[in-house]
Amino acid sequence: MPSATMNAEEVRAVWTSDKGSMAKQTAETRWARIIQGIIDDIGETAGAEDVDCQKRAESIAIQIALKDIKKGIEQNKPLTPLPDDGKLDIQEWNKQLAAIGECSWTNCPWLFGECYMYRSIQRILNSSKHWQNYDVFKRQKDSTFVKSRVAVEELASRYMQIVADTRLAQDESKEEAKKLLFIEMTEIALWGNATDLSLLANLTLEDLQNLQGREAIQKSQRNIVDNDTDDVWAYLQRTAGQTSRQIAIVLDNAGFEFFTDVLYAAYLLEAGIATSIRLHTKEFPWFVSDVIPSDVESLFAHLESSECFPVRKYLDQLIPRLRKLFQSGAITTTSDPFWTTPFSFHEMPSKAPALFKELQNSYLVIFKGDLNYRKLTRDGLWPHTTTYETALGPLGKESGVKSLALRTNKSDVCVGIPAQSKVDALNEEAPGGAWIRNGKYAVVSFNEGQ
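Now predict its structure.
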């Protein structure tokens, strides 16, 4: 068995050829479906009556190029150097591909292969005249978000009734209530799905202090297999006197999850935990549903639509409150090219030193979702009892980066499990590594970077 004290260079990344892996399943069944979905989406957009004839004509060439990628995946063709599209990063992609050596769609490092696929899609759009800024996943994002109507309306109601209660921030005697609320808001951001949560539904501010609140918390935390919430809270309490407390949130999915992230950001500001929030988006459509800059205004457009969300009482109170945080500069957004490269975050100090410095200077960096977790841990097949700090490599010990990963488990890597006995119990409870992949388990992993 590999040692739990291995360093990153000794740990092999998961490959799409690994038997029984999520990587293999994704490469063999999901990637071609994603490409076909994009082909269908472009065809639908190009078929609209008001589309310029030149744009429509160009869509045919784009669909042909996408079909070539799909065919390559289905026939397990070799990964080949990306043709130039006028962007500066192509050289880096091809350099990394050369370093990997001969590989194919179902026999390549999963992290690289998946990133390569999304960059290949964007290369086709970049090379066009009329489709360069087109979000091939917008239709899908919008549809999914609208389906979460009940959860959005419910969460808006809970937020306005409980979190926005100014008594919470003002009454120093409610330290336990503050901590329980921090845990619950963090779990909303973790799971990205209000229907998974039990606490805020029925409890008043006062109820947060009683046994019922603590029991609800304990029940909801059962499937968090690495839970450093207490450590994060202790750090935040110990450092609350710092004058500048900018929290960075490296975002994951648009739609409902992004809504929960914006609520989490608002909570961190309104509770006095953060002095400002910086949201990190992707520069272009990435991993189907990742947040890109245009998704910010799209979120508000949906929330303000009574057709999408007909129950308005709490949303109409909440939306101006959220907009004000953006307009005042309390919440800002940024996109760094590094987030859409094939590199793991272990390469950040050398490949994106300015970004690394920004994260070092942040009060806390919250990494959302599975892809960010894979990149934090180099997508490595670490023993599960490896500490989160060790798996972070250059972003771990003595890095100066205070990192918090909120991730539901949907891939092949998971570290930070406190003991092998716990791993054994999880394997018995969810056989075949299901607890690492089925999205029903999660981690709240924190490292102070000291």
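Residues 3 and 155 are 43 Å apart (CA to CA).
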